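Hey, I'm writing a tutorial for new members on how sequence and structure tokens pair up, and I'd like a real worked example in the thread rather than a made-up one. If someone can provide the structure for the chain below, I'll link this post from the tutorial.
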Amino acid sequence: MRPLKKNHEPELAGPFPPDLHDVRHLWLKGLLLLVWALVSFVATFFARDLQSLVVLGWPLGYWIAAQGAVLMFIAIVVVYCWAMNRFERQDAARAVALTTEQVKPHG
């Protein structure tokens, strides 16, 4: 039996390098964090003032605090997943373009 070759290079989690500090990712995370903070703190702070408005038999403050926050959190997750998939497709297209550019003979 031959011994297995040991590769001492760290294995990446996919075809892309783990560049977690890409400007696109930071802007996305910052924007979604801002939306989360607005929904969590600002909307619920003003929910008491909105109790006089009634929607479908319930005060608007109830809808914002109980239902709207949950729906916004789900929307934040969906937007994050959609944007990250889009970023990965852009990175893959850029990697393919760089690979084909390096393969072409110049001259």
